[in-house]
């Protein structure tokens, strides 16, 4: 049983160490990190209080008195809450099935689960609208049964909620599945020996114990739903539904000197929504208790028996609609010569791929740039993010909470706002001094780290929360501290969660679009920028070809990873 | 570089030039490499994105300290008008501008149109057999549920069109009210309009001409129609930023874009050139062939927010 | 509700944790499973609970076959309570909630308890002496307190079959005594069948109706405490339960001659046939006497452990360690050379016990 | 390296887990901390290890003050080994790696061991009898096996101060005996100072040089095993260590008269002054004799526990439960009415022990 895990690491020592040289550095580092994250936000907030160059509340008074504002806020809250719930339900259910039951092909499923996260959301949306459109597959199927089936209108609040929820459930899944696996079997068995049915056991034992993962995943999904622009734009504009992210964009592109101030003011409102989400998340996490430390237990705990095929069928249908349909629709578009022509043997060709790979030099460069950017961001994230997560869990003081909030906000801001505030912050971090970061590739590194570090922090927090303090105490009495403790004890125990975080950071950075499209310079084009460019020029076929290529590369990466993993396992042998 | 110093002052033009544009990537690239043939010592750095993004970036840079752009080329003159009002532009009257219709050149020399992009009708050629000839295709009761157009709230070009059409006696707000009655689909940008029509989701769209011509040439089932009433046009003006730190290069760049060679290049890429005497690419009308719907730029600039607001009210209920 | 375990086999990969397990447990019986660390006690209990499926063999409870290689009735459908060796407390529930949990969920909870859940919880809290800590979370409890919570949770719904895996190992002697009594009382009152895993032979001897002694995954002997203690049938049991010194030698009719001391003969004090066949004479530590300057087995004292009312000596003699428990009358020092003798006086008493 | 604990106080929120703790531990001493569940033993050990900071008071090891309210020397800088009550094994390391770990990392590992890490690991593996399971992961070990790994990890680097939190509670008697011997041998060989937490008074009596008896966060008595067992100074110690029945009455010079039986007088068998002052006469279970048809304290047998070589009776008499341990000579049945007598014969022997 987790003994003594409530204790903080030597509280007085922590205090004393404030004054030691080594910890001075640590604290300076934290302050620097805060500064990096807070500078853009600070600039943004200042802007929201600026009108005609004066400090004033004017923006707030006008905006808050406008009924439209409240409509937008209401829509936002509805959309974000609804889609987060959808993500939670799908993510947690899938995680449970994969972690505990004997369904087959779990590894292959992992790929399909991640698909919605790597397929650009405008493609997903398009696929969905086509699927459910007037002459889409859905209506064709719907005309089969004798009774009438209502057409589903995606251009609605419900549609936005639905598509957002389905796009972001991987976040919940990825952060939950390993936590589920780490819950000691005996805790479940104790419940069942007490007569609780499986469902009760899940509700009363697994759910509360997996809270760190579920809450972290839900929180990330919440932030992702909040900042998402593509889906509410695509589905909301036709239906005249505004949420904060689209509304802010309208302000940004609006004219006049007050455009930015208005946008900043709305961003502050959005920030407040994000803060409320953070607070709710804390409420849940406060209740969560640390488990006895175990390694992931991958043996199935529940045998579905005769119902197995049914469950598997449902899962694959889900994958089909969330991953395969968009993938196919994207793939098909990428193979035709011109948008809108029918997909027939005559019309397919590899022309578009040839264009991207041979004719256009940009695409290849962008692949390289993005891979490098994403790799470095993920690597830096692992170190900084895990360090922050560790401090946050082991020393939950004001400073570490504050750090967590500052790191979370940039992920919640819509990309456009985030990019603009990066410009505010980094062109002349100190007025009158331009360090040349803006305009070089450095700005993208900083922007990506600022924006995506929270993914790593949450992944690592989830992992650290699974490690009982006694693990570290045992290392300490055995004489290991600092680096050797991390290398030999903590990292091996943290690795699944840390890698999940890094994986999310890597994928997000790899396909990032909005921020890069405002910050790139001509020598540092990223995948997102190139896609954005094609799309704006009306070259949808190139866009889809490029996107397909990237998704294929990602899938290939997965396969290589799995193959080498199983090769490694076989070679090393499961511990004797 | 090919070191072809045919112009006397070419060698004195050199250094860095930041070019911010909303032109598609490939087009910008071609433009620059042609420019570099004449001015090999100028290193042009391009920032390319949607007009809205480009302007946001410029504005943000201004807020943050200093605008990095030297030369700006974005969709419409109203946008430039606003920059002009904010005194962000440098006055430069290029000699080349004399060949360009007066109405497309800012009288104060702050910006000059570089090409002509009209907003016309796009029609799905598979769903519609008889091509319409009038904007009424969007307002006919038959077209109910089959109309798509970009949102002026998101697209600068669409906002321009809104301003022009509502100030035109033949159309006015009545036109938009009638469109509204057909329950149109409103998209974020022109690209989405083309897609909706190309894949048959909608039959008629209001969209900028050149992307339709391209898609048509590629084989998409779409057709470009210039309605008889005329079309609003945007001119993708070019201008030099007030704070540019390389005036000679910036001016040389503007000259090149407006020159015969520059305009022929634009036509070759697929745009209607703005310079008289240069022919339009296949599928597009030249400026002389189309009837242009116009409105006073200053008035448009002054009323843009109001127009959008009114649009929002009309369509938002 | 008798429980019958037949030919049970359990393998983990290469390890065979259990084999040839045959036990039939009577309704209301108190069975102790006694054996050294790693002998498979927990594994057996887990099979009884339905947490694992056997690799072969079967378990029948009442007239229902609950576990075979193919089908295993899940634990929640068995009317059981279980105390886990590792406690398995839920980190997110406080003490009270732990006790309450099975009362709310167990389908077999007697109606009167179900109607008065709160009362029953209070009652159990009193039994496990944690009333004052009702709102504590598991991580705020000491090791023994945790164990008591685990115990309380298992007994609360008065299950018909109570499985306990070393439920008292973390308790001090005092509390252990009390808990033993509680468990025994519980046994008398509810007449539940109890399977009680322990490595502590005193506990097994004191509480159980019958003891199953296990070693290396197999059953060594099943019998009443008296049988196990006084008439062990294997060397292992003699040593494990009685701490007996096992002397090799030859049995001739009822006389034993140690191999190394042909001059000595010992009478039969109740040695079982199987041990006799193996030529073993088991002498429990209290059957030996340490004397000086007399005839007997000569040796040297290599360890002295004070135990309050007696002293435990280890004596090195004849190349082996002899364990001797002696009273406080006379004391010997570490390293002293002494002589060991069998207390033959014990004989009569011992025989009586064996055959009673 | 003496360890001095002064005025130690430790609070958790509302609970005071330790108070007024003053112990001075000699270099090389074997100290047992004995007390009931939840009395603060683990808390004390954690403070000694440096995992927690005291709320007040100080701990000095050698000439360094290692723990005060303000400053706490971290555990890795103390030359200690520790066995955790909850084992705290690392789930990702196998048995061998656990033993190896401190050898690789502890800064105080003796040079000869450091040079021969592999040899030392083998040695320790043999001591804890896990050589064959060297490659097992913690989740593949039984409870007792886990505990042995925890023990091995702590002793491997031969620390100067060895802290053990119930290191044997999950082992069977046999193995426990062996481990006890190992620990004692280790103690003799390395001359490490050992602080050994246990709730088992037999263990404490058998192994320790001195015993610290704790109750409810306070020290009840510190003394050698003999002192603690034979001359308890508090009622708690008499009961907890000697299982003594505590009889209220009056002392007059060396004579005791139980309050309920004015006719009886008992002689002083070595009762400490503090107990006399409280008017208490402690009688250990083996000091009582059950007889029939004689004069004495009349009562009824309410519980019989067979213990192999003796039988433990609980006798209800005079409104209290008397615990009596008696040999196998004569047996009494549950419910039988009997008479209790003090074995005065024990007197001489007892006195001798006390004053020796
Ligand atoms: N999952 C497993 N994989 C491999 N071996 C296992 C596994 N679980 C238990 N064992 C082995 O099976 C044997 C029996 O284990 P079990 O836990 O039943 O012992 P036990 O009798 O309860 O011991 P203890 O008194 O120490 O708790 C041990 O040798 C143990 O190492
Ligand atoms: N974090 C905590 N918060 C509140 N009370 C605590 C906390 N940790 C321990 N306690 C309490 O402090 C007291 C002493 O606990 P400790 O773990 O030292 O007991 P122990 O003597 O080791 O008992 P055991 O033999 O049962 O392990 C107990 O009453 C326990 O409930
Ligand atoms: Mg066990
Ligand atoms: Mg403890």
Automatic annotation (TrEMBL), chain A:
Record has Cell membrane as a keyword: yes
Gene3D superfamilies recorded: MetI-like (1.10.3720.10)
Keywords: Cell inner membrane, Cell membrane, Membrane, Transmembrane, Transmembrane helix, Transport
Source taxon at top rank: Bacteria
Cytoplasm among keywords: no
Matching PROSITE patterns: ABC_TM1
InterPro entries hit by this protein: MetI-like, MetI-like_sf
UniProt domain ABC transmembrane type-1: residue ranges: 73-281, 367-562
Chief localisation class: membrane
Compartments (UniProt record): Cell inner membrane; Cell membrane
TM region positions: 25-45, 77-99, 111-132, 152-175, 207-226, 263-285, 309-329, 371-393, 405-425, 437-455, 489-510, 545-564
Membrane topology (UniProt): Multi-pass membrane protein
Similarity annotation: Belongs to the binding-protein-dependent transport system permease family.
Name under which the protein is recorded: Iron ABC transporter permease
UniProtKB/TrEMBL annotation, chains C, D:
Pfam families: ABC_tran, TOBE_2
Molecular function GO terms recorded: ATP binding
Membrane-spanning residues: none
Protein name, as recorded: ABC transporter ATP-binding protein
Keywords noted in UniProt: ATP-binding, Cell membrane, Membrane, Nucleotide-binding, Translocase, Transport
Domain ABC transporter: 3-241
PANTHER family on file: MALTODEXTRIN IMPORT ATP-BINDING PROTEIN MSMX, TREHALOSE IMPORT ATP-BINDING PROTEIN SUGC
SMART domains reported in the protein's UniProt record: AAA
The keyword Iron-sulfur is assigned to this record: no
Source organism superkingdom: Bacteria
């Amino acid at each position: 049983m987790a003994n003594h895990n409530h204790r903080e690491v030597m509280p007085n020592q922590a205090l004393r160490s404030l004054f030691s040289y080594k910890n001075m550095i640590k604290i300076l580092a934290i302050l620097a990190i805060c500064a990096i994250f807070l500078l853009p936000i600070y600039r943004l907030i200042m802007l929201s209080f600026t009108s005609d160059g004066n400090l004033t509340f004017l923006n707030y008074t006008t905006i808050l008195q406008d009924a439209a504002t409240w409509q937008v806020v209401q829509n936002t809250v509805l959309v974000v809450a609804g889609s987060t719930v959808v993500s939670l339900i799908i993510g947690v259910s899938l995680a449970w099935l994969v972690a505990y039951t004997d369904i087959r092909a779990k590894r292959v499923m992992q790929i399909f689960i991640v698909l919605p996260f790597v397929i650009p959301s405008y493609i997903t949306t398009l696929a969905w609208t086509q699927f459910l459109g007037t002459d889409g597959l859905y209506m064709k199927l719907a005309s089969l049964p004798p009774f009438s089936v209502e057409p589903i209108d995606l251009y609605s609040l419900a549609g936005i909620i639905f598509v957002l929820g389905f796009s972001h459930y991987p976040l919940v899944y990825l952060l939950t599945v390993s936590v589920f696996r780490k819950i000691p079997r005996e805790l479940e068995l104790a419940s069942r020996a007490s007569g609780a049915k499986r469902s009760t056991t899940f509700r009363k034992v697994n759910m509360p114990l997996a809270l760190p993962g579920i809450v972290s995943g839900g929180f990330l999904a919440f932030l992702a739903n909040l900042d998402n622009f593509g889906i509410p734009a695509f589905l909301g504009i036709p239906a005249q539904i505004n949420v904060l992210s689209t509304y802010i964009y309208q302000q940004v592109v609006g004219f006049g000197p007050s455009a930015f101030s208005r946008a900043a003011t709305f961003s502050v409102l959005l920030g407040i929504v994000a803060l409320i989400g953070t607070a709710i998340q804390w409420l849940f996490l406060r209740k969560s208790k640390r488990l006895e430390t175990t390694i992931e237990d991958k043996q199935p705990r529940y045998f579905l028996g005769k119902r197995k095929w049914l469950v598997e069928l449902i899962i694959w249908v889900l994958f089909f609609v969330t991953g395969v349909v968009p993938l196919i629709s994207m793939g098909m578009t990428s193979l035709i010569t011109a948008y809108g022509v029918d997909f027939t043997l005559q019309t397919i060709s590899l022309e578009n791929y040839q264009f991207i790979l041979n004719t256009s030099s940009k695409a290849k460069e962008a692949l390289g740039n993005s891979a490098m950017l994403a790799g470095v961001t993920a690597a830096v994230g692992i170190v900084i993010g895990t360090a922050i997560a560790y401090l946050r869990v082991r020393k939950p003081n004001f400073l570490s909470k504050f750090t967590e909030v500052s790191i979370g906000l940039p992920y919640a801001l819509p990309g456009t706002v985030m990019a603009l505030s990066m410009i505010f912050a980094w062109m002349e971090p100190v007025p009158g001094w331009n360090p040349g970061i803006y305009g070089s590739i450095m700005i993208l590194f900083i922007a990506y780290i600022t924006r995506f570090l929270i993914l790593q922090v949450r992944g690592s927090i989830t992992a650290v929360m699974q490690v009982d303090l006694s693990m570290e105490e045992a290392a300490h009495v055995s004489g290991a501290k600092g680096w050797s403790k991390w290398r030999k004890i903590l990292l091996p125990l943290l690795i699944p969660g840390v890698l999940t975080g890094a994986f999310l950071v890597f994928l997000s950075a790899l396909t990032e679009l909005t921020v890069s499209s405002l910050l790139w310079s001509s020598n540092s084009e990223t995948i997102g920028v190139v896609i954005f460019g094609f799309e704006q020029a009306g070259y949808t076929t190139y866009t889809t070809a490029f996107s397909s290529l990237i998704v294929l590369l990602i899938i290939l990466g997965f396969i290589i990873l799995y193959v080498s993993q199983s090769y490694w396992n076989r070679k090393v042998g499961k511990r004797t | 570089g090919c070191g072809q110093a045919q112009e006397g002052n070419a060698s004195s033009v050199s250094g860095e030039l930041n070019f911010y544009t909303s032109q598609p990537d490939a087009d910008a690239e071609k433009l620059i490499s042609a420019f570099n043939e004449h001015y090999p010592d100028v290193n042009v750095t391009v920032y390319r994105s949607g007009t809205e993004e480009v302007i946001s970036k410029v504005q943000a840079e201004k807020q943050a300290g200093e605008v990095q752009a030297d030369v700006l080329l974005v969709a419409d003159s109203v946008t430039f008008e606003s920059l002009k009002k904010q005194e962000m532009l440098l006055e430069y009257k290029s000699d080349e501008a004399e060949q360009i219709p007066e109405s497309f050149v800012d009288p104060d020399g702050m910006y000059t149109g570089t090409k002509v992009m009209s907003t016309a009708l796009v029609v799905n050629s598979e769903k519609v057999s008889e091509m319409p000839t009038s904007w009424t295709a969007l307002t006919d009761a038959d077209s109910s549920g089959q109309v798509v157009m970009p949102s002026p709230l998101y697209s600068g070009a669409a906002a321009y069109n809104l301003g022009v059409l509502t100030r035109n006696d033949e159309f006015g707000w009545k036109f938009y009210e009638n469109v509204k009655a057909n329950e149109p689909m409103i998209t974020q940008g022109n690209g989405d309009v083309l897609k909706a029509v190309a894949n048959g989701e909608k039959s008629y769209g209001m969209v900028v001409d050149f992307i339709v011509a391209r898609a048509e040439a590629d084989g998409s089932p779409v057709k470009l129609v210039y309605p008889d009433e005329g079309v609003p046009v945007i001119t993708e003006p070019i201008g030099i930023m007030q704070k540019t730190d390389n005036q000679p290069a910036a001016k040389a760049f503007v000259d090149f874009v407006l020159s015969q060679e520059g305009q022929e290049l634009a036509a070759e890429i697929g745009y209607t050139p703005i310079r008289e005497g240069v022919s339009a690419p296949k599928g597009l009308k030249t400026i002389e062939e189309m009837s242009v719907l116009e409105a006073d730029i200053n008035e448009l600039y002054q009323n843009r927010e109001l127009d959008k607001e009114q649009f929002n009210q009309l369509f938002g209920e | 509700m008798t429980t019958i375990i037949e030919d049970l086999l359990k393998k983990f990969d290469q390890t065979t944790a259990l084999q040839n397990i045959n036990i039939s447990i009577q309704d209301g019986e108190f069975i102790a499973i006694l054996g050294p660390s790693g002998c498979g006690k927990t594994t057996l209990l887990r099979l009884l609970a339905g947490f694992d499926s056997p690799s072969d063999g079967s378990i029948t409870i009442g007239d229902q076959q609950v576990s075979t290689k193919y089908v295993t009735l899940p634990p929640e459908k068995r009317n059981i309570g279980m105390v886990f060796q590792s406690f398995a407390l839920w980190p997110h529930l406080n003490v009270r909630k732990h006790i309450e949990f099975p009362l709310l969920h167990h389908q077999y909870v007697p109606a009167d308890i179900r109607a008065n859940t709160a009362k029953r919880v209070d009652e159990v809290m009193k039994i496990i002496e944690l009333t004052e800590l009702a709102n504590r979370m598991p991580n705020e409890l000491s090791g023994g307190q945790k164990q008591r919570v685990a115990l309380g949770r298992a007994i609360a719904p008065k299950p018909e079959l109570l499985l306990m895996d070393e439920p008292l190992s973390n308790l001090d002697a005092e509390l252990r005594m009390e808990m033993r009594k509680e468990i025994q009382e519980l046994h008398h009152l509810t007449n539940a069948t109890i399977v009680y895993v322990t490595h502590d032979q005193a506990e097994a001897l004191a509480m159980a109706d019958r003891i199953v002694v296990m070693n290396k995954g197999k059953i060594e002997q099943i019998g009443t405490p008296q049988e196990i203690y006084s008439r062990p049938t294997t060397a292992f049991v003699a040593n494990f339960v009685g701490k007996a010194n096992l002397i090799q030698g030859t049995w001739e009719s009822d006389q034993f001659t140690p191999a190394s001391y042909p001059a000595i003969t010992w009478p039969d004090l109740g040695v079982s046939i199987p041990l006799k066949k193996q030529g073993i004479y088991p002498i429990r530590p209290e059957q030996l006497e340490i004397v000086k300057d007399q005839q007997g087995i000569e040796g040297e004292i290599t360890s002295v452990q004070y135990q309050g009312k007696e002293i435990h000596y280890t004596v090195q003699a004849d190349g082996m360690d002899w364990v001797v428990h002696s009273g406080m009358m006379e004391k010997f020092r570490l390293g002293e050379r002494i002589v060991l003798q069998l207390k033959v006086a014990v004989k009569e008493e011992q025989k009586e016990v064996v055959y009673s």
